[in-house]
Design a protein that fits this description.
Bound molecules: zinc ion
Number of strands: 11
Radius of gyration: 19 Å
Helix content: under 10%
Strand order of the largest sheet: 2-1-11
Length: 113
């Protein structure tokens, strides 16, 4: 089992059926919130229960505190951004590319767990 040093994702590099798994870090989610009456965008991990978010609830846009979110609410304004040190193990297969046969992006590597 490996752990990605960038995203902390854990995975087996070889799947049970014998095929190779090529890890690629997922993007980060940035969330549009209102905090102290100021609209800001924060990392998903930094959202506070008291932040207010706009959601689509039963077809209607409403703004609610995060602590009052309900199952099925669709947050509005979220964006996905690539991680600065993204790892992507998919192999470059262009002979004219100096990375031919190498992973697309090393990121910050992995460790055995
Ligand atoms: Zn990763």
């Amino acid at each position: 089992m490996l752990e990605c040093n960038t995203c902390k994702g854990r995975y087996a590099p070889l799947l049970p059926d014998g095929t190779r798994y090529f890890h690629a870090c997922p993007p980060l989610t940035r969330v549009a919130v209102t905090r102290a009456d100021e609209p800001i965008v924060v990392d998903l991990s930094a959202v506070l229960p008291t932040d207010r978010v706009t959601v689509l609830r039963a077809g209607v846009l409403v703004t609610v505190p995060v602590v009052a979110l309900q199952a099925g609410d669709e947050r509005q304004g979220d964006i996905q951004v690539e991680r600065p040190d993204k790892r992507d193990e998919n192999i470059v297969n262009r002979p004219d590319d100096r990375r031919h046969g190498q992973p697309k992006l090393e990121g910050t590597g992995t460790r055995e767990i």
